[in-house]
Amino acid sequence: MEVVIVKDAKAGGELIAGAIVDLLARKPDALLGVATGSTPLPIYDALVAQVNAGAVDASKARICQLDEYVGLPAGHPESYRATVLRQVVEPLGLPESQFMGPDGSAEDVQAACDAYDEALAAAGGVDLQILGIGTDGHIGFNEPCSSLASRTRIKTLIEQTRIDNARFFDNDIDQVPHHVITQGIGTILDARHLVLLATGEGKAEAVAQTVEGPVSSLVPASALQLHRHATVVVDEAAASKLKLADYFRHAFDNKPAWQGI
């Protein structure tokens, strides 16, 4: 696992955006898996800035979702589809036809989950998947004790997650869905390159367990240790509990021209 310690969230976003630019230069129609939430926003901002500056042509890039609420009406502004369209697809100037995600409004949700896994495979697989991490080590909506071989499936949101997400629904928890579709850990591990961004002291313990702890379903993100190309980008606060932090800093310092993480 590659671990890169950066100064702050902005630096992490710029670094990862640079890797995406390199990917698109090599493979213009690459399939980029994106996550929602506040953590990856610096990545998207930096990527849009580089595309607008002419660093790369992103017109053929394809985007796919990591997860989606179940039961929200089509076009709901807080659906993850609408969020990704607003934060990534539209700013990059991409047509909606180059964006794919699970159908959270399907009558048969499990069939929709299976169909999404099949669609990802038919698209050639995800080239680079952006991930965040929860304080309990979850990735996507794969909470602790999720199977490390799990595929895209429906999950029930715990009460605390619904409370946390109420801020996106006028602070009304009754509007927050009880269920989500999420790529399973096995599905996530199918991507060719996994890039996890974590910032802030609150993520430090989860990062340490992910990078240096045992592979365990108690820390779902630890499954990244099994991946052939996983990169963890953290700021100093999120790296504060890594025993090998000095080693990781030294390894990065020795690669000033490091790219294509």
UniProtKB/TrEMBL annotation:
CDD domains: GlcN6P_deaminase. The record marks 146, 153, 155-156 as: Part of the allosteric site. One of its GO terms (cellular component) is cytoplasm. One of its GO terms (molecular function) is glucosamine-6-phosphate deaminase activity. InterPro entries: Glc/Gal-6P_isomerase (IPR006148), Glucosamine6P_isomerase (IPR004547), Glucosamine6P_isomerase_CS (IPR018321), NagB/RpiA_transferase-like (IPR037171). Residues 10-230 form the Glucosamine/galactosamine-6-phosphate isomerase domain. The active site is at residues 67, 136, 138, 143. Its EC number is 3.5.99.6. Keywords: Allosteric enzyme, Carbohydrate metabolism, Hydrolase. Pfam families: Glucosamine_iso. Allosterically activated by N-acetylglucosamine 6-phosphate (GlcNAc6P). GO terms for biological process: carbohydrate metabolic process; glucosamine catabolic process; N-acetylglucosamine catabolic process; N-acetylneuraminate catabolic process. Catalyzes the reversible isomerization-deamination of glucosamine 6-phosphate (GlcN6P) to form fructose 6-phosphate (Fru6P) and ammonium ion. HAMAP family: GlcN6P_deamin. This is Glucosamine-6-phosphate deaminase. It comes from Streptomyces indicus.
